[in-house]
Specification:
Layout: E1 2-4, E2 9-10, H1 11-19, H2 25-32, H3 42-54, H4 60-73
Antiparallel strand pairs: 1-2
Helix pairs in contact: 1-3
Bound molecules: FE2/S2 (inorganic) cluster.
């Protein structure tokens, strides 16, 4: 579903960003430009973002964090 018509940002784009580590809505806006023009999509974008952040971890983000931690200590 397209959430932001101005910038063609979908719910999957938002979920993908969260899965990749975006945990702040303002960062999401910087990355995708969602809700940064007319603002009509703000509430929906926020709801999709909040649900994605609250969703249980499927494991791949934890693997990314583990990999980053291992790299940082090496
Ligand atoms: S619909 Fe998202 S900023 Fe306009």
């Amino acid at each position: 579903m397209i959430v932001c018509l101005c910038h063609r940002v979908s719910d999957r784009d938002i979920q993908r960003a969260v899965s990749s580590g975006t945990q702040c809505f303002e960062v999401l806006q910087d990355e995708t430009r969602v809700a940064s023009s007319c603002g009509c999509c703000y509430d929906c974008a926020r709801d999709v973002f909040d649900a994605a952040v609250a969703a249980p971890c499927t494991g791949h983000c934890c693997k990314s964090v583990s990999r980053m931690a291992a790299t940082a200590t090496a």
